[in-house]
Amino acid sequence: MTEAVRQKVPSRVLRRFLRSPLSLVGVVVVTATLICALLAPWVAPYPQDAGAVVHFDQSMQAPSVAHWFGTDEVGRDILSRVIFGTRPALLFVIVVLGIALTVGIVTGLVAGYWPGSRLAALILRVTDIFLSIPPLALALAVTVAFNPSLATAMIAVSFTWWPWYTRLVYGEVLKLRNELFVDAARALGQRDSVIMLRHILPNMISPIVVKATLDISFVILLGSSLSFLGIGAQEPTPDWGAMVARGRVYLPDGWWVSTMPGLAIFVVVVGFNLLGDALRDALDVRS
Amino acid sequence: MGAHEFAIRRLVQLVPTLLGLLVLIFLIARVMPGDPVRLALGPEATAEQVAALRNQLGLDQPLPVQFINYLIGLVRGDFGVSLRTLRGVGSDIAGLLPATLELVTVSLLFSILLGVTAGIFSALYQNSWVDNLVRLTSISGVALPRFWVGILFQIFLASKLGLFPIIGRAAAPIHGPTGFYTLDALLAGNLPGFFDSLWHLVLPALTLALPTAAQLARLSRASMIEVLRQQYVLVHRAYGVPTSRLVLRYALRNSLTSVLTLLGLSFGSLIENAFLVEVVFSWPGISAYGAAAVLAKDFNAVVAVTLIVGLAFMLANLIVDLLYGVLDPRVRYD
Fold it and tell me: Which pLDDT tens digit goes with each residue over A49-72?
């Protein structure tokens, strides 16, 4: 009987998920992005152009059949670099959300499990300070301490992102900590860490997953903004934000150099947004 | 608790947060591995010159002493010396702040006008082509990287079509009491100057506003639809109150409270994204200054800009909290 119920819930979620045509668009874009990242050397028409190569004889060519997105100032194929650009973008997302989720879940669990304790007060006060300043501004301040690189940008953005998860997890734990199943676990003599991780945490996976999915697009935007400002990934890494920034020198005649990588950011961000929205509706999580 | 008492209490609550922010940013900036003084003086400077500037800036003292000195300076309105421009950061910023404020204010107006209007029409004509268009535009609008939109505007509207200036605030600087070029030009009766600075504002302000407007459109549509379902709206309809009056006099005000929450956050996102827009449009504001300071590891300037952005964000949220009571008398302060 429980088996039957278990099978039904995901299929209902899946049905709700696939009801809207927009969520399908999201799925398609995200799948295409993942394929590009995993199979970049085979998908890209000129895979060697992702690195530090030059073909000056082909520099600044407008979009054509041979180069759909045109070529840049040293003659590299922009489409190939845009396809390889999915790699730093997704790496960025994985590292930032990995750190933010880990720190946010641990601090949120602790603060919510022992509310009113000194440790909880300290955690909440520190989150308040972090949330009192817009993330891009704080990330910029953090990067002062390091040399510009993809890793620097990752550290900076992770540094600003965890408090949102602390807040989310804290609120969820407050709701759950007085539930009967928590009392039961406590009465059975389970350790606090076991109650938090095995009993409370699994009950708030949905809101965490939905927030993380919606955050993917914000993190991509923030990461590309940092590299656009010259603080993130550096040449020859095929990073979208950095490519847009370099293309500015060749405006307006070489319009494709900036336009195409920016278009990639836009499409991928729309895709993850649609996926996140659909997931939120399907899992019925109120934002 | 009255509104005044509430306002004062909220202001007092800002102090520990602001102090925490100061400590945080101070720590970040002082733990940097690079040597800012060496960077400012260049590779040719001798060890003595570096030591002298280090001593002059107080960077050779222990961290707590540096922090206390910094706080004392702040109270006096002294943000220290910029290692990049070698002028006082305070005076640098005072000259640049009005440009940023003017840009952010006009963008906020743009986003409210565009976003809320689109949201209302979308809600009034739910499921029509207008609604579908607004929904599709707002879904994609929030995904727009602002630095890219700005560049597209520069390529197509400014450069190819020549409709707008590509960069800058005005053809010639306009001086006046507010530092807002548009206002100062109006106050001086300088109409050509007013239109010139307004023309320069359109593209940067629109670039900054578009994603925010998209967000506001989504929210105001949702909250308008909810309000239009209320019984009192139905009653007014039955009495034959015209739709325009119904929307503007009754429904709008009630749907604005939820929009207002987002407005505080919107202000924060406009201020932070000004970093990108100012760089793209060479807008002489504190954000472009801050971005350059970060690249030059100009510690005092970075701390000051981050602090001002944080303070502005906190104040915006405070104002939003206070406005709730004005818009919606049902809100009680406690």
Answer: 998 888 898 889 999 999 999 999
